[in-house]
Amino acid sequence: MPANLTPEFIKARERFFKASTTEEKLSALEDMQSTIPKHKGTEKMRADIKKKIARFRDADLRAKKGHSSGYDHIPKEGAGQAVLVGPPNSGKSSLVAALTNAKPEVAEYPFSTLAPVPGMMAFEDVKIQLVDLPPLSEEYTEAWVYNLIRAADVAVLVLALDEMDLIDESLGDLRRMLSERHLELATEAAVGEERVRILPTRIALTKGDVVPGAAELLTELPFPGVATSVVSGAGLGDFRRMLFDALRVLRVYTKLPGRKADLEEPYTLPAGSTVLDAVRTVHREFAERLKYVRVWGSGRFDGQQVPSDHRLKDGDIIEIHVG
Ligand SMILES: Nc1nc2c(ncn2[C@@H]2O[C@H](COP(=O)(O)OP(=O)(O)OP(=O)(O)O)[C@@H](O)[C@H]2O)c(=O)[nH]1
Ligand SMILES: [Mg+2]
């Protein structure tokens, strides 16, 4: 819908993007509010501006009270944490909205996300945490965004297929901005030099309903990726599995002697974990009192008694015997 924005409004919006302090942002937002044309086509934008004003007033108040207005930490939940990283308007919030219980703001104009929004995504019987982030841009991205990326287990680069020509360029820009903050992207986790964080990375191409037939493009990407659409739902299942695989975790189920296994809720452990690691996760004290463990799955036969350094596989069931 054409919004017929006035030059005054556009100028105020520019000021908003360029503002570096909460006060400047607030003042620009207030100017946006007073200059935006008031008709049906701007309804969503007006509601959004109103919401942002409320949020910045809140941040302003907190800052004046001496609290930080940054977001330096999102407590991890579930099997692992993935952050959504991308240029403005690429569909990050839409993915989080489609895949999790969270309700981040989705808007047709860029820079709609200002704060991180975590949500839990189900994959089979595990939950993976997705964190929606503001876009990365040379001028407007605050330091806390990079801190949250650094702390995540996996980065998902989110790029829109309707700007297909720009995918290479966007990838280059993202890698450069991250690299300037000592964040390097790789397919697998690795230990970097001092201060350098090497982040396991995946790619989500979005808006597949607008530009179908992206399969070929996927093979040319520097990291494993999937093509998605929140409109048709295409690729969302693949996205879930891709993240589970990227996290490199395994699921372990427990059973009590003589009973059926509890297949409801697995423990998730790093790939390569041993029986002893699993026992410690179940109950720290069990590790000291451990007599033996039987395994269903990766043992040579079901219920085999295995040594405590036996490496587990995804889906194993363990029966812990303590003295
Ligand atoms: N057709 C189509 N549109 C989409 C899809 N995903 C997102 N969009 C649209 O793209 C626009 C931007 O979506 P957002 O999810 O807000 O994008 P974002 O990356 O969070 O944007 P910022 O927070 O500003 O960086 C909205 O108008 C969405 O409706 C999709 O799969 N198909
Ligand atoms: Mg967003």
Between the first and last Cα atoms, what is the distance in angstroms? 71 Å
Q: Which segments are poorly predicted (pLDDT under 50) over 5 or more consecutive residues?
A: none
CATH superfamily of the largest domain: P-loop containing nucleotide triphosphate hydrolases
Shape: elongated
Summing up helix and strand content along with how strands pair, one would put the structural category as: alpha/beta
Could you tell me the radius of gyration in angstroms?
23 Å
The count of helical stretches stands at 10
The gist of it:
The chain is an alpha/beta fold and 323 residues long. The chain has ten helices and 13 strands.
